Amino acid sequence: MKIVNATVIITSPDRNFVTLKLETDEGIYGLGDATLNGRELAVASYLNDHVIPCILGRDPFQTEDIWQYLYRGAYWRRGPVTMAAIAAVDVALWDIKGKALNTPVYNLLGGKSRESLLVYCHATGKDIEHALEDVARHRDLGYKAIRVQSGIPGLENPYGIAKGPGNYEPAERGLPSEHAWATEPYLRHVPALFARIRTHFGEDLHLLHDCHHRLTPIEASRLGKELEPFDLFWLEDPTPAEHQESFKLIREHTTTPIAVGEVFNTIWDAHDLIRNQWIDYIRMSVVHSGGLTHLKKIADFAALYQVRTGCHGATDLSPVTMAAALHFGTAIHNFGIQEHMPHTAETDAVFPHHYSFKDGFMHPGNAPGLGVDLDESLAAKHPYQRAYLPINRKLDGTLTDW
Ligand code: KDG
Ligand code: MG
Questions:
Q1: Backbone φ, ψ for residue 108 (5° rounding)
Q2: pTM exceeds cut of 0.85
Q3: Residue 253 is among the residues annotated as catalytic for this protein
Q4: Which residues are within 8 A (CB) of 204 and not within 5 positions of it... i.e. 6 or more apart?
Q5: Under a CB-based contact definition with an 8 Å cutoff, are residues 215 and 238 in contact?
Q6: What pLDDT score does 231 carry?
């Protein structure tokens, strides 16, 4: 079998998605997600201008060799654009392989280690009362694990909070908006939020919280410690992780489990975090970490250190990535939890799929390959629209993390 055609399809049903379609001489095709939130066209160009010409004519079963060819052969390694492009090729190849062998991708990754995957959703509110209402809404939808964020008194529109009713989408069309951030009121507010949630909902729900990289290591240590009585499933992205050793300080101060990795691209971003057991969950995603070929190796490495997975699954990861993550999580031994931010009906219509949600768990379905498709004529009706994540500044105007 040979790859004979490759197309990059950009669509924006309600947000932007970049998808690679690889076609073979036997009529089988595969899909890979190449979406990089706010930098979508860079990955599309990387694929069209630099990758596609090199993979036409190759055998789609050679997932390992093609991965190494694109990673090592470029000379310029790592980075989100490169790794998203490699991921798109890799995932499309696994999809082709599954379809050619008439089996779901999870069977190619080791077969079923579990029947379904625990997922967590996002509850948000402009204040604690509204956050409690949103937790109740998600609990009633069946979720057993809920990430909770709420507005902070004195700060308008902090990142991570839905602006109105319905599902939350962080990207905004047009140029980036700017918002004010202050750590002091945040640190005072979050323990009060979780105290109220536990009083209201009891001990059974798994609760998670995302700090969006905004704290220093010592601030994160304090927060982790103050949240201990509320038994969080995890505290996410407590501090930026470019300097991995920052997590040592957090680890030394708190037993609240720590998750990180949604912005990581290769094992080298997480190597120290994992081998020193400074984290409990590695959140790298299929699309931003070089695809299934690389993420499987990262999961196996993490398993040696009792670190479990918690793959990023926000709406900027397309249904192709959600399907790939569910096959991956079904197969690996050290699966922890999967993030689930449901896509809109418009996105689901462009990407019909076999995966499903029921009672707090997801299942990848049993269709051959990934079990996700792309309606190209519908996709063409939704052209790309410039969109970015918002930007945060401290009250004095200094730029900060999200
Ligand atoms: O593209 C960025 C979003 O996916 C991210 O900010 C969402 O933090 C996020 C999460 O945990 O889903
Ligand atoms: Mg996050």
A1: -85, -15
A2: yes
A3: no
A4: 144
A5: yes
A6: 98
